[in-house]
C-alpha cells in the first residue's frame, strides 16, 4: 500500500512537470518621440517598466516636442513626450501630465552673477543688455544661447519670458538640451536656458541662477512659486491602443507616486 502511494505521488509529480509550460510573452517594441529635455525622465520611466516587463523595449527619439507630436499623429511613433503642447486642442490625441518641470537660467560656474530678474533676462535675450557689467558682473560681452525652432523649451521660454519681444538675431541656436549645457560649460560669458529635470549629471561648470529671488528645486518647485514652472506630458492616440495601454497606466501610477 505504501509502495503504491509512492508510485502515485511520483506519477503526479511527473504529470505536473510535463504539463504545458507558461508561454513567454512575444517581444514588443515601442517608439517614443519628443522633448529632448524630458529624456532623463523618460529614460528612467522606460527602464523601470522594462525591468518589470523584459519583453518590452523602447526606442527613445529626442526630436523636440513639436516633431514628436507630429510623429505620433502620422504613425511614426507609438507615444510622444512633450514639454510644450502645440495647441490646447489636439484632435485624435490623448494627453496626460506625467511630471512637473521648470526652465532654468544657466551660466558658467565662474560667472559671478548669482541671480537675475525677469526683466533683465528679457532684455538680455532681446539684445538690449549686452555686457555682464550692466547687471553687476564683470565687463564682458554676454553670449546669448537659445534653442532650435520646434523645441518645447524654446516655445515655453519665449511665451513666458519674451512675451511679444523677439530673441536677438545674434543668439546662438543649439539643437538640444545637451548642446546648450555643453556650450555654456565651455564659455565663461554664455547664458542659456534648460530643463530642471535635465540637470541630472550636468556639468559642474554650469550653475543655475535664481530668477526673481527663487532658485528652482524639484522638491519645492510648486510651493516656491518659481516663475518658469511647466508640465511634462505623455501623448497617445485616443483612445489609447491596447498595446500601449499597460505602459500608459504605468506612467500614470508613477506620476501619482
Task: Give a description of the structure.
The protein is an alpha/beta fold. It is 33% helix and 25% strand. It is built from 8 helices and 11 strands. Strands 1, 2, 3, 4, 6, 7, 8, 9 and 11 form a 9-stranded mixed sheet that branches. α2 (39-52) links the parallel β1 and β2. It is elongated.
Helix-strand blueprint:
Blueprint: H1 2-17, E1 28-34, H2 39-52, E2 56-62, H3 65-73, E3 79-82, E4 93-108, E5 115-116, H4 118-125, E6 143-147, H5 152-162, E7 172-174, H6 177-186, E8 190-195, E9 206-208, E10 210-211, H7 221-224, E11 229-237, H8 245-256
Parallel strand pairs: 1-2, 1-3, 5-10, 6-7, 6-8
Antiparallel strand pairs: 3-11, 4-8, 4-9, 4-11
Average pLDDT figure: 88
Task: Sum up the overall morphology in one term.
Answer: elongated
* Coarse structural class: alpha/beta
The total strand number stands at 11
Radius of gyration, taken over Cα atoms and rounded to an integer in Å: 25 Å
Following the backbone from N to C, one meets helices and strands in this order, namely HEHEHEEEHEHEHEEEHEH
Distance between the termini: 59 Å
Counted by DSSP, the helix tally is 8
Relative helix content: 25-40%
| Beta-strand content estimate | 15-25%
The poorly predicted ranges are: 1-20
Biggest beta sheet summary: 9 strands, mixed
Amino acid at each position: 500500500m505504501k509502495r503504491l502511494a509512492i508510485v502515485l505521488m511520483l506519477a503526479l509529480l511527473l504529470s505536473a512537470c510535463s504539463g504545458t509550460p507558461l508561454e513567454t510573452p512575444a517581444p514588443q517594441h515601442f517608439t517614443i518621440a519628443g522633448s529632448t529635455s524630458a529624456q532623463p525622465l523618460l529614460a528612467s520611466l522606460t527602464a523601470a517598466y522594462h525591468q518589470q516587463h523584459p519583453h518590452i523595449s523602447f526606442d527613445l527619439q529626442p526630436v523636440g516636442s513639436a516633431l514628436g507630436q507630429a510623429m505620433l499623429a502620422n504613425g511614426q511613433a507609438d507615444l510622444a513626450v512633450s514639454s510644450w503642447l502645440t495647441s490646447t486642442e489636439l484632435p485624435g490625441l490623448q494627453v496626460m501630465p506625467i511630471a512637473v518641470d521648470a526652465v532654468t537660467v544657466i551660466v558658467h560656474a565662474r560667472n559671478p552673477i548669482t541671480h537675475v530678474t525677469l526683466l533683465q533676462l528679457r532684455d538680455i535675450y532681446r539684445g538690449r543688455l549686452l555686457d555682464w557689467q550692466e547687471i553687476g558682473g564683470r565687463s564682458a560681452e554676454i553670449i546669448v544661447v537659445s534653442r532650435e525652432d520646434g523645441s518645447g523649451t524654446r516655445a515655453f521660454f519665449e511665451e513666458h519670458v519674451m512675451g511679444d519681444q523677439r530673441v536677438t538675431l545674434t543668439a546662438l541656436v543649439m539643437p538640444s538640451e545637451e548642446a546648450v549645457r555643453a556650450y555654456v560649460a565651455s564659455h565663461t560669458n554664455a547664458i542659456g536656458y534648460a530643463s530642471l529635470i535635465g540637470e541630472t549629471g550636468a556639468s559642474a561648470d554650469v550653475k543655475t541662477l535664481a530668477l526673481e529671488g527663487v532658485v528652482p528645486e524639484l522638491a519645492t518647485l510648486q510651493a516656491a512659486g518659481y516663475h518658469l514652472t511647466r508640465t511634462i506630458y505623455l501623448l497617445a492616440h485616443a483612445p489609447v491602443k491596447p498595446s500601449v495601454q499597460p505602459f500608459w497606466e504605468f506612467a500614470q501610477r508613477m506620476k501619482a507616486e
